[in-house]
Design a protein that fits this description.
With about 500 residues, the protein is of the alpha+beta class. The protein is built from 13 helices and 23 strands. It has helices at about 50-55, 60-80, 80-85, 90-105, 110-120, 185-195, 200-210, 315-325, 345-355, 385, 410-420, 485-490, 490-500; strands at about 130, 145, 145-150, 155-160, 175-180, 180-185, 215, 225-230, 240-245, 245, 250, 265, 290-295, 300-305, 330-335, 360-370, 375-380, 400-405, 425-430, 445, 450-455, 460, 480.
């Protein structure tokens, strides 16, 4: 079966390794008659000669210039949302960028090339647009200040994870007040404009997660000077400290947390976002991508299911989990989607069916073919996936979904599909806005530098929805930003369970 990937490029590597494996781009087959609108093919356009500039370009500089133009051409001919994001035509975008590139002096400086590509991609507020630098174009190492913060509903930046190397200097629950003498919100906003996501809330949360971690393959900074912080503790004690950047790595597989490695390692989502997932010590799993555990809330037994992603697990894995949950006979099922990565529509539909949502998933598509550049629109469904679903165990009771602004792509589609199928009000959505990133991920490699450019070729709008996922976050019924343990004991849960 052809998989339909929604998430960012899957990179099953540690962050400090020097190579990556490009993801495959496999658009869903389109079975309805398309309305074909041809776009220019994916070939190099004639590069206008500017004698004064060409004469001072080094060989490396010329290669960088050509890769920059290639990236611009890919955006102009392949990026599905260009007109919507920029408010201009594809031709005018490409002309402006080529004129801009001609004015630059391409001397072969690797930092300049990296900065120019980062600036180019920052024009698109899209959670699926991204870069992966390799070789000499990477920073020397992935570095950290040793903590991971998050943005709260009242616009504070709270530390939620601290590496043992700096333990005692700052603590979980501390608030970051300032960064190098300025409000920390200024620095978060600056980073969010460098690597914007599909919505403002998601851009800020992603920037908060990257505030104190910078990847060698996707840097947000060019230098790493010590950072002066002002921190406020929960009891309102204010202190100042200076932290230095140090080398670190990351892992996406939960079982790698016990790996023997000299570098400090941070748990990452499969979208390579520093993770703040709530994973208790007594968690159960056969497949670590489908975690579950049991709790009691106001004398009511409940089950919590945390899918870490929407890939790497099968419907057989899910069926076993659901059997175990049903055997415990809970009064409520919580689907904890906090920091859940995107993935495939297969898993989106498996989990939908496991919650007894079995209506056909129909959608309107708008797709640009990766090879030909031909654009087509129409309607389709995922019947070829749904026809293979043979789950034996389904939950038919109440479900509480916890969401946040890291949930994107497959998580966005799944959450919205649940909202659209909530006629009997057995679903409740709690947390923060999702990312609103719905375009999918497609990867291209630039010819000379081998830099990987990710950009979406397709949009799918759920047929029964009024708008596309892209740029439109799924909003919770009740805002909430505390831990899963606090949520479980909140009056919200008791009220939801007991009220018909």
């Amino acid at each position: 079966m052809k998989k339909v990937k929604l998430g960012l490029t899957l990179l099953l590597i540690l962050l400090f390794l020097t190579q990556c494996t490009p993801s495959e781009s496999e658009p869903q087959s389109l079975t309805t008659e398309p309305d074909n609108t041809p776009l220019p093919p994916n070939e190099e356009l004639p590069i206008e000669s500017n004698q004064s500039q060409d004469s001072i370009r080094s060989e490396i500089g010329q290669a960088q210039y050509e890769d920059y133009i290639q990236a611009c051409q890919l955006f102009s001919t392949r990026y599905i949302y260009l007109e919507d994001k920029l408010g201009c035509s594809r031709d005018s975008f490409l002309k402006d960028q080529m004129d801009y590139a001609q004015q630059l002096t391409w001397t072969g400086d690797k930092n300049q090339f990296r900065d120019e590509l980062i600036h180019l991609t920052s024009m698109f507020n899209d959670g699926h647009v991204g870069l992966f630098f390799v070789g000499d174009y990477r920073q020397a190492q992935t570095v950290t200040l040793g903590f991971i913060p998050t943005k709260t509903l009242d616009d504070k930046y709270m530390i939620q994870y601290v590496d043992e190397k700096i333990a005692g200097l700052i603590n979980v629950g501390d608030e970051i007040i300032s960064w190098n003498g300025k409000p920390v919100s200024d620095e978060v906003t600056r980073l969010s404009l460098i690597r914007p996501n599909s919505t403002t809330a998601s851009s800020l949360e992603h920037a908060a997660r990257r505030l104190a971690i910078d990847y060698a393959f996707d840097p947000l900074r060019s230098q790493y000077s010590p950072v002066n912080l002002v921190i406020q503790t929960p009891d309102h004690h204010v202190s100042q400290l200076t932290l230095d950047w140090y080398s670190c790595g990351g892992y996406t597989d939960y079982n790698e947390s016990n790996s023997d490695n000299e570098l400090p390692l941070f748990l990452m989502t499969h979208s390579l976002i520093p993770s703040l997932e709530d994973i208790p010590d007594d968690v159960n799993y056969n497949n670590e991508e489908l975690m579950y555990y049991f709790r009691t809330s106001h004398d009511h037994p409940i089950a919590v299911l945390h899918p870490r992603s929407f890939y790497h697990w099968t419907q057989e894995d899910l069926d076993q989990v659901m059997a175990n949950i049903l055997e415990n006979n809970p009064d409520l099922l919580i689907i904890d989607l906090k920091d859940t990565s995107g993935g495939y529509f297969d898993q989106v539909l498996y989990l939908s069916h496991a919650l007894n949502v079995t209506d056909p998933f129909e959608f309107e598509y708008d797709v640009i073919d990766a090879e030909t550049g031909i654009r087509s629109q129409g309607t389709d469904s995922f019947s070829e996936i749904e026809d293979t679903i043979t789950l034996s165990h389904a939950w038919k009771g109440k479900v509480l979904f916890r969401i946040n602004s890291i949930v994107q792509s497959g998580g966005d589609y799944f959450t919205r599909w649940m909202q659209l199928n909530n006629e009997d009000n057995r679903f409740l959505f709690i947390g923060q806005d999702t990312s609103g990133a719905g375009g999918g991920s497609d990867s291209f490699t630039l010819n000379h530098t081998q830099t990987q450019l990710n950009l979406p070729l397709r949009d799918r709008k759920i047929k029964s929805d009024s708008q596309s996922i892209e740029g439109h976050a799924v909003k919770p019924d009740i805002p909430f930003d505390q831990s899963i343990d606090v949520l479980i004991q909140d009056e919200i849960v008791r009220s939801f369970i007991e009220n018909n």
